[in-house]
Design brief:
mainly alpha, 6% strand, four-stranded antiparallel β-sheet, two-stranded antiparallel ribbon
């Protein structure tokens, strides 16, 4: 039967897979594009030598002259027959390849791409060398005009299909398994992100309901006689704690008991998401018959097809080279952390600048303005450093000399993610865990260059600063980045359409055959699309993984992060589809049976999310100090009273007293009103009034923070392990399917043996 004839060793493609290519004369596997070079020139000679090598391998080459010089190449049938013969599965008696069947289109393109990029000229130059020397400008497979393509354009690559289920099988049959798995993962991630978005929104709305009812914010709003120490050395007056009433309400809208529960939920969500994805992936690749596909075996087969005398490259490892690369990675990380320190210095200087401004609004909101402008500057550094990180990571990968394409991609993934993680999160880590904790206290401030005081947290806490920073960065990344990501290929495509050169042909249009004219139009239209870079799909994965990091690691400070990510991903799926189908040349359809090393990266992020959220609640949030006060120093404990809120008096308890006479000599103390004498002011800390040493309360809170951190992380990690155990990576249906397949293969083998014995 037809469905029992395999076209590859891992997949008996069903008839509905519209991926077969008949050996028609108007079908071309790849198109090579070059400029018109003078006859006898060096570039023309190199081009001819490369095309001659392809001809020796049986490739059919067709030349068309238009605004550029196009060479269509079509591989001979025997290349694909060799592929089928080399990779048929001997363990399956019914899987022997049939010469009457063609390989799928995605497999054809992948084989031809491999041969093109591994064909060597007599000058020992390959296609990538010729492209660097401008001998060839581009090499790409063609978008086909067929039913499957029209379906993807109309039902997938349109904005109106934003809530429509993705046709993963058709994506696979056109773009290959690697692209299909990316969209399957992105769709699955977005689907489960909707659950996290709803819980985060509920947490945020619950915080809004206590906007004005929190006892802590009420005390701040009513503290009209609590005089606070100046926030800077010049032109900063004493101020009343009640001046920060609105800011305090916003802080406690974010920083409440619901935040702790949401952080725990997100730790569990990250684990469940990955475990469910593993099950989904196992089901998908089993349906594609790729669960046990061996990438290395296929690569070796294609190397032999390209060159029967090829010797496999041996695995190598150099401790010296690895040491050098490790040192260079550490240097790069140090540079990125240094840039984060530069952002800290900017905020310090900006705060001093705003406090000395002639505008009252800037003086009053100096700290907030410094944080907001610092967040914008941080985003700009992310954009710049992303390009720098990419070049450095590629350079380090070249130093490693990876043996295979997948090994190169894995090495590059680890390096670029490490660089991008520090680029995106160094500033956030400083705000979350160091801001306001290393700046000293009145009379003994830590200063930058001996002049500017290190910035302090807002009197209502640091978590709002972290909230502002994350909100600005996520909004900018998901708006500006997406606009640029869409407009860049769109503008390039439109400019290429307008920049049409006079057509150069060897014969008039009237003399051309209809098929050749159609072929010419197809090649030219594909050429005018934007180029597909080697790491284009990698960039999409990296963008989503960084977003996943923002969504999980500091979500305790920004409960709306999952909602922003969910809305962005609904657009991202269609944006990527439109780019691939309408704006970019066709990507090479690589085969894959998982998302590769990205799964390990996501698991590492899940662990970091537990640690990060635990630290945010324990260190950045006021949750622990308030709980310590409630159960140790509040009226409920000292006066055994239940008629009042147990957090009553917390604000006064969390402020220390500073004597005005102890200010540093070069600090300009604000002038008092006539007849007004101020001897002391308050500041946020737990210090004694006589010698400014830490109080007993400080050490109680420190111990409680440490205990909570240990308890939270161990509890979250235990829940993660239980969830990972509870949800099997591979569904039982997949295991049973493999078992039945093995049984059937053995039964067929036994039947053949018995039949041979009887004969």
């Amino acid at each position: 039967m037809q469905d029992e004839i395999p076209l590859t060793p891992w997949r008996r493609f069903p008839l509905e897979d519209s991926a077969f290519i008949p050996q028609d004369e108007d079908k071309w596997d790849f198109v090579l594009v070059s400029d018109f070079h003078e006859v006898g020139s060096e570039k023309e000679t190199k081009r001819r030598k490369f095309l001659d090598e392809l001809s020796k391998k049986g490739f059919i080459i067709k030349k068309i002259e238009d605004e550029k010089l196009f060479h269509g190449v079509r591989a001979p049938k025997q290349i694909f027959r060799k592929y089928q013969q080399l990779l048929w599965n001997p363990d399956n008696p019914g899987s022997r390849p049939d010469a009457r069947c063609d390989v799928p289109e995605t497999t054809r393109i992948r084989i031809v791409h491999f041969i093109l990029h591994h064909t060597t000229t007599p000058d020992f130059e390959m296609l990538r060398d010729l492209m660097k020397k401008k001998v060839f400008e581009a090499a790409f497979p063609l978008h086909k005009k067929e039913e499957a393509t029209d379906f993807l354009k109309e039902k997938w690559a349109r904005w109106r299909n934003i809530f429509r289920k993705q046709p993963i099988e058709k994506i696979r049959s056109y773009f290959g398994e690697k692209v299909a798995l990316y969209f399957a993962w992105l769709g699955w991630y977005t689907c489960l992100l909707g659950v996290a978005a709803v819980v985060g929104l509920v947490t945020f709305v619950a915080g809004i309901t206590i906007f004005s009812s929190s006892q802590v914010s009420k005390e701040i709003c009513e503290a009209t006689d609590t005089l606070m120490c100046p926030l800077c050395d010049q032109k900063c007056p004493f101020w009343l704690l009640s001046d920060t009433c609105t800011y305090a309400k916003v802080t406690h809208m974010i920083d409440n008991e619901g935040t702790v529960l949401f952080a725990m939920f997100m730790a569990i969500w990250a684990t469940v998401f990955l475990e469910l994805w593993k099950r989904q992936r196992a089901t998908v690749v089993t349906n594609w018959d790729l669960y046990k596909w061996d990438e290395e075996e296929e690569e070796l087969a294609m190397e032999l097809i390209n060159d029967s005398e090829h010797k496999p490259q041996q695995y190598q490892h150099s401790y010296f080279r690895s040491t050098i690369i490790l040192l260079l990675v550490l240097v790069m990380i140090a540079v990125i952390i240094g840039i984060a320190h530069g952002l800290v210095i900017y905020r310090v200087v900006a705060t001093a600048f705003f406090t000395q401004s002639d505008f009252e609004f800037l003086r009053d909101q100096a700290n907030t303005m410094a944080v907001m402008t610092g967040a914008v500057l941080h985003y700009i550094t992310i954009v710049i450093m992303t390009k720098v990180n990419r070049h450095v990571a590629l350079y380090l990968c070249d130093l490693e000399k990876p043996r295979t394409l997948s090994q190169r991609e894995n090495n590059f993934t680890v390096k670029i993610f490490t660089f991008q993680f520090f680029t995106n999160f160094s500033s956030l880590i400083y705000i979350a865990f160091f801001l306001g904790r290393i700046n000293g206290h009145p009379g003994n401030y830590v200063r930058v260059a001996g002049k500017w005081r290190l910035e302090e947290c807002h009197p209502s806490g640091c978590i709002t600063d972290l909230f502002i920073q994350m909100a600005i960065i996520m909004v900018l990344k998901q708006t500006i980045s997406n606009v640029v990501e869409y407009l860049s290929p769109w503008v390039t495509h439109k400019l290429r359409q307008k920049r049409q050169h006079p057509k150069r042909r060897s014969m008039s249009a009237e003399e051309e055959e209809e098929e050749e004219e159609a072929c010419r139009r197809q090649w030219v239209n594909n050429y005018r699309l934007s180029n597909v870079e080697f790491l284009s799909l990698f960039d999409e994965f990296l963008e989503m993984v960084i977003q996943y990091s923002f969504t999980t690691i500091f979500v305790a400070a920004f409960p709306l992060a999952p909602l922003l990510a969910f809305c962005n991903n609904l657009l991202e799926i269609r944006l990527d589809a439109i780019k691939m189908m309408r704006l970019r040349r066709r990507i090479v359809p690589w085969k894959a049976n998982d998302i590769g090393i990205w799964l390990q990266v996501l698991e590492a992020i899940g662990t970091l999310a537990v640690i990060g959220n635990g630290l945010v609640i324990a260190i950045t949030s006021d949750f622990i100090p308030i709980q310590v006060y409630k159960y140790t120093y509040s009226p409920c404990m000292t006066e055994n009273s239940t008629a009042v809120d147990c957090s009553t008096g917390y604000i006064n308890h969390s402020l220390s007293i500073f004597r005005i006479k102890d200010f540093e000599s070069h600090t300009k103390i604000p002038k008092m009103l006539p007849g007004q004498e101020i001897t002391e002011c308050r500041y946020r800390d737990y210090r004694n009034a006589d010698d400014y040493s830490y109080t007993v309360q400080f050490w109680h809170i420190f111990a409680a923070r440490l205990a909570f951190l240990i308890l939270f992380e161990h509890a979250a990690l235990c829940v993660k392990l239980i969830a990972a155990w509870y949800v099997p990576d591979v569904p039982k249906t997949v295991k049973n399917q493999f078992r039945d397949r093995k049984h059937n293969n053995l039964y067929k083998e036994l039947s053949m043996m018995e039949y041979s014995t009887e004969v």
